[in-house]
Amino acid sequence: MLINPLYILASVLTLVGGSREYQKKDLHALREEVRVMFDHAYSSYLKYAYPYDELRSLSCDGFDTWGSFSLTLIDALDTLAVMGNFTEFRRVAEIISARKNFEANINVSVFETNIRVVGGLLSAHLLSKKAGMKLEPGWPCNGPLLRLAEDMAKRLLPAFDTPTGMPYGTVNLKHGVPE
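^ alpha-1,2-Mannosidase, sequence as received from the core. Prediction below:
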């Protein structure tokens, strides 16, 4: 007997999601709780760790983990827009856009840099219209955040040119992969 895949999916979703129905006031309270937690983490990063990549929560200081790009700032951009904090989004986007490229003689994690820098810049670029940013002619195919994402993506590409087809774990942003 064959089991319908939709039945399995529905069963799993019921188990995972439960059958709880949220009231509007509960949803608003949960949304506000998430906003407060994000604001706490974000403002703590700005106060104690910026311009470093991340905040060490126990020592309350910053450290660079993946290349000294203010990763948390890039990572937070799309969340700022989704939460409606467009003023801060525009301020941070201007700071990040001031960077011309990512040329640096450092080794970075291909995975982390791809998801956090390239992904963060691409999502922020697409949200920039909603956030009220001044858009360049040709947007969405043009813009400072998109150019930075493209610059970083091009610097990651040598990691994918391997004999096995599996990418290297790290790449040097200036020199590529060592011969």
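The CA atoms of residues 159 and 168 lie 5 Å apart.
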